[in-house]
Design brief:
- The structure is a single chain.
- The chain has about 475 residues and is an alpha/beta fold.
- The chain contains 4 helices and 40 strands.
- It has a 20-stranded parallel β-sheet that branches. Strands 1-4-9-12-15-18-21-24-29-32-37 form an 11-stranded parallel β-sheet, covered by helices on one side. Strands 28-31-36 form a 3-stranded parallel β-sheet, with no helix packed on it.
- Strand 6 and strand 7 form a beta hairpin.
- The longest helix is centred in the C-terminal third of the chain and has 44 residues, at about 430-470.
- It is globular, with a radius of gyration of 28 Å.
- The two termini are about 45 Å apart.
């Protein structure tokens, strides 16, 4: 017993203390002083159910430091860091936490909330709610709710001098972010750090890109769910940027993600399959590949090269499910449509005069500048895939499929399992899966029932034999049978 208690006392324990928010006039300086003075491995514990009104970014200062809420809650009791610095003439604080210092290897941001506090105002120049990455490796961002950024993204993992490596972004709930008014957009998650992991994140109501990969060679993006409710989103997952890796997406894998466009606002009635959406909300491009899909001829002959996009699913209203233009050596296979979908939209005022815009469709590919790619068979070949985000959703009308408009705790579709199908799949998939599950369940039930009846019969026979044996006189002994 003595040894047991001795071992328990020797084990490291989380402190029971957390740093209070009051007095608020010293809050930002106190938090930064703790990080600056406490060295490597320091854990800054914030208090649950507490708001921290910060006037400047909180800065990681040494390797393996952590900022988290005491006890690691995952609900709304997570501490909230509120961006509260002044804004004047479009300039002011945009970032709550920064982990991109020259000595920030292995820092961790966990189980907190970041409120960018834009509050419907126009965006201002500056960084994201969270700025991580830089010349570092091994960082972790998990169980963080980042939303309403004043700047351009909820979370940015920067490339450093192309030497950022192996950052994990997982289990976060991201958004809303930005407005769908022209040039007032904001990203959900923006990643330029190579060999990173972006997984199991819920991204609700971004307006620019749900997940944007700035090259980020070697990065894996999987099991994320992206959906819209009251703002149109330009792109669900974007692989379009030339900078900073000159369009290099080698080793990037985008797989098992779910992307949901807009749905009809009201429940289905009668035999109708589509209805209206109160905000005319769509996702313009579910997955965008290649700079010309986004920027048109701005980057001339630059291309996105080397990525893999497989086993993703799309549901709801889009203009284009997957669009490819100016891409080489990509593999795009086994991506499917699930539930109810529609592909809608028409040329908007920002479309280039004289440049035709592709008709909305599930999978479109520009054959003029897309080469050496392996693609699924249901792509439509086209000869002009430029600037597809200029398209606008219909102004009303019964064009939106009936389906789920989810809350943040209930995404429209769960991240899919890998599929071997190479063609689009609609709502009949759910029926087939239900039948299969029902048949399996029935077989298991029958097997269990047969086993139970057999066991009961054997027990009953044994009980009768035992009863008869006890009613007869015993001569000698009976050898037991093993």
């Amino acid at each position: 017993m003595h040894n047991y208690f001795h071992k328990m006392m020797a084990m490291p324990r989380a402190t029971s203390n957390c740093e209070p928010a009051d007095p608020d006039n010293t809050l930002t300086d106190r938090l930064n002083t703790l990080l600056n003075s406490s060295g490597s491995g320091y854990v800054l514990n914030l208090c649950p159910s507490t708001q921290y009104l910060i006037q400047a970014p909180i800065l990681f200062a040494a390797p393996n430091q952590e900022i988290s809420t005491l006890g690691y809650p995952t609900d709304d009791t997570r501490a909230v860091l509120v961006v509260n610095g002044t804004v004047s003439n479009g300039i002011g604080q945009t970032t709550a936490v920064a982990g991109n210092c020259a000595n920030c290897n292995g820092v961790r941001l966990r189980n907190v909330q970041i409120n960018g506090a834009r509050g419907g105002a126009p965006p201002i120049a500056g960084g994201a709610n969270i700025e991580m990455g830089g010349p570092n490796s091994g960082q972790l961002i998990e169980f963080v709710h980042s939303y309403d950024p004043r700047g351009w993204s909820c979370l940015h993992v920067a490339e450093g001098s192309l030497n950022c490596n192996n950052v994990t972004v997982q289990n976060n709930d991201i958004g809303p972010a930005g407005s769908d008014l022209f040039q007032q957009w904001a990203d959900g998650i923006s990643v330029a750090c190579q060999n990173s992991f972006v997984r199991n994140n819920m991204i609700n109501n971004p307006t620019d890109g749900g997940i944007v990969l700035f090259g980020a060679p070697g990065t894996r993006v999987e099991n994320n769910t992206i959906w819209v409710e009251n703002n149109t989103l330009l792109g669900g997952i974007n692989m379009v940027d030339v900078s900073p890796f000159s369009g290099d997406y080698k080793g990037v894998v985008v797989t098992n993600n779910s992307i949901a466009g807009g749905f009809a606002s009201d429940p289905a009635t009668g035999s109708a399959t589509k209805g209206t959406n109160n905000e005319d909300v769509i996702i313009k491009i579910g997955i965008a590949i290649g700079p010309r899909t986004w920027f048109g001829p701005e980057y001339l002959n630059n291309v996105s090269t080397g990525g893999t996009v497989i086993d993703n699913q799309l549901t709801g209203a889009f203009s284009y499910g997957i669009a490819m233009s100016s891409a080489t050596n990509f593999t795009v296979e086994n991506n499917v449509l699930v539930g109810n979908t529609s592909f809608i939209g028409a040329r908007g005022p920002n479309c280039t005069a004289g440049d035709p815009t592709l008709s909305p469709a599930a999978f479109v590919l520009d054959i003029n500048n897309t080469a050496q790619c392996t693609t699924q068979s249901d792509f439509q070949d086209n000869t002009d895939g430029d600037s597809l985000t200029c398209i606008l959703p219909p102004d009303g009308g019964d064009y939106w499929p009936f389906g789920g408009n989810p809350g943040s705790s209930s995404p429209p579709v769960s991240p899919p399992e890998a599929s071997s199908s190479t063609t689009s799949s609609h709502s009949s998939n759910g029926t087939i899966v239900g039948i299969v599950i029902g048949v399996i369940g029935g077989i298991l039930f029958v097997a269990f029932l047969a086993w139970y009846i057999r066991r009961w019969a054997i027990k009953r026979t044994a009980d009768r034999s035992h009863f008869r044996a006890t009613r007869q006189p015993q001569n000698g002994y009976v050898r037991s049978k093993e």
